[in-house]
Amino acid sequence: MKAVIMAGGKGTRLRPLTSNTPKPMVPLLDRPVMEYTIELLKQHGITEIAVTVQYLPEMIRSYFGDGSDFGVQLHYFEEDSPLGTAGSVKNAEEFLDETFIVISGDALTDFDLTQAIEYHRHKGSIGTLILTHVDSPLEFGVVMTDDDGQVIRFLEKPSWGEVFSDTVNTGIYILETDVFNYFDRGQVFDFSQDLFPMLMTQDQPLYAYVADGYWSDIGNLTQYRETQFDMLDRKVNIAMPGTEIAPGIWTGEHVKIDQDVILQSPCFIGSDCILEPHVTLEPYSIIGEGSILGRDTSLERAVLWRNNLVALGAEVKGATLCQNVIVQSGAIVHEEAIVGDGCQIGTKSIVQPGVKIFPNKIIDHHTTVKHSFIRGDRLSKNLFGQSGVNGTCNVDLTTNFANRLALAYGTTIPAGVAVGVSHDSSPFAALIANVFLSGLHASGIHTYHFGSMTSSLSRHAVHHSDCAGGIHIRALTEGSDTQFVIEFLDDAGLPLRKNAERKIENAYIQEDSRLIHPSKVGRARTAPNVRLQYREHLLSLVGNRSIESQGYTVVLEYDYRNLQQIIPELLEILGCKVIQLNRVTSSPDELASWVTSSKADFGIRLDANGQQIDVVTDQGEVISESMLSILQIMIQLNHSDHPELHVPVNISHSAEILAAQMGRLVIRTKADSRSIMEGCQNQGFHIYNDGLYTLVHLMQLMADKNLRLSQLVDSIPDFTLLKEKVECPWADKGKVMRFLMEETKGKQVELIDGIKIFHDEGWTLILPDSEEPMFQVFANAGNHQTAKKLAMTYAQKIHDYRQRVLSRPISVAIQ
Question: Where does 104-207 have alpha helices with state H?
């Protein structure tokens, strides 16, 4: 059998480690990671190997040559531009004239490839995906199979709601040459995104094999370090480089270690290293070939590449130094700092935790480096949350960070387009908005400054302008003056898709910025009166007269700072008598007492962003979140005659009942913000995320049906929708989902978002939270008792799986 090692990756998330080094050449215990891949293939009798290269290919060629020094024969295939994983392998089609295995050159594994190959041949598969278990499946492809192991579903980089297992695609494939018939040479084509879905569509035999053993995709700086610590702990079955001179202490050849050196296991010291007197190597220290540690130096969980000098009394604690770095006397490099090739850290300087210094930089003596040399102060792995990019005022959300983020965002959209920028009424949000305006101008992007408003108004403004996108900065939670979020919108005013978020994250981590000629700098454009546009457009959708004729009395509570420029005039035009409360009430129940005592038609409480709404009926009943969702369904049915209604997966089945009564079909969507808003969008308005839109259309619905709000609620079929939260560590989430899928075999299940199990009494939805270590369990039934029983049953299952089942191996069909 032949093999293909994919070695073209840039490893942008590993920078500055990969600034001058292709990812397959990044060292693990002083040897390139790709060398371990070659050894694995040779161990299983595979010596004819194609290597696909693109980024810094000569570094790979010069080290490995024709492969003879490593006992194999290497054949190189270089692509001029990225062709995707399958497109890259297609270049080697003439060489690959028999069954072949595709494996990454930048991951470490000890899988039994022989067993996987036997499985592939036994199944008669056109392609076999090798899978493994991981704690967090989000960065990988989750694969589902039937009982026979045939792949029936493939989800590349899923959200938590799409994670049905902790078993993921490793990027190791055993393939027949027939796969080359499905695409052309030079075509951009990917295995997981293009080829495998095509094979499944055409009912080709595509199988998955779950491998035992170790696998580490070295995708980020933390994983890079942890992989080497795993090697020292012998968690991976490889031939350790060097000689074990004492338990857990490995050295290369010609190492000089003074008798007064303190070595604590496990640790690794490469060939030709010199350790002078009184050096201390604490556990998990890794020293590359030719490095010199001066007298009285101290290393702790440090990773040093080749030819580094750590001078008299210097300390490296939990940091990584690339090659040819000089750390001068008395300097300290702290935890998770990364120092690139050829850098010099001056005498008694301090590199603070998490700082990244890119190659060939010089840090002066007695300098404290608090931020990355190129302005980096935040990692991108968790850059985007559920609502956008959030952080703490002047801690991780700083003007420096906002400027870098604006420059990164600017590179992902064409120069010369316009972006709308807005913010809430807080001074800090306005400050960050101004930073974004400047950063976008520097990227050649024109801007509209919409000013102070809510997210709903901002979305509407972007939708109805010539904007290519939008930015809205606001306080993250009501009443908070420390937590803020930066919301990113596309040209339709919707939250960005995941792939657009990833582009911004990648641009941010790569420190990308666009070089603009002074004549092409972006300019501020005159913004329209977006509040007036929003109000007039909203009123045009309902028609004033039917509401105005009712003369509704409304008890109203809202945040004056963000909403006072639109709510009073809006309700005045609609002929409402308003009893306005100061923002002093502590709960909707207190609002309810005002409604009943004043004999109002209903009460409304809007959050500071005007997005979430609490509603109280004329009878003083506080409408639950689930009931409000059904009222919003009725509003959509009343307002539109479209045959399909898009409803989030976690809303009651009453939606189907009401839609059926009007001859409509319900299409369920995911429960993330983008999917919800995309499904309910109405000319830039989004009912589930716009309290004013809900308020106005609720009044229209009452007027059209000539019903009081309490009567409208009574007309809805009885149902109960409960939500339970179950804590679960991140590392256990995928495992729990896998066992839940196994437990639900034979039951009616829906996998739009999370796992939705249908019962005779209703349904239960298990939805992994995307930002917190927990599950949300929704239970829908005709009465409270049944819904409570369903919710508690599955909450208990999650608890039981964590406590009893996770440690026990189980054969499952979901991979």
Answer: 113-123, 196-201
